[in-house]
Amino acid sequence: MRHGKYPFVIGFLAAPVLLYSVFVIAPYAQAFQISMTNWRGLSAPQWVGFDNYRQLVEDHRFWQAIQHHLVLLIALPLITIAIALFFSFMLNVAGKSSGGQRTGVWGSKFYRVVFFFPQVLAVAIIAVLFQTVYRPNESGLINGVLMKIGLDPILFLVNPNIALWSILGVLVWQAVGFYVVLFSAGIASIPGEIYEAAEMDGASRVTLFFRVTLPLLWDTLQVAWVYLGIAAFDAFAVVAVLSVDNGGPDGATTVLALEIYRNAFTYSKYGYASAMGVALFFLTITFAVFTLRVTKRESVEY
Question: What's the whole-model pTM score?
Answer without folding.
Answer: 0.84
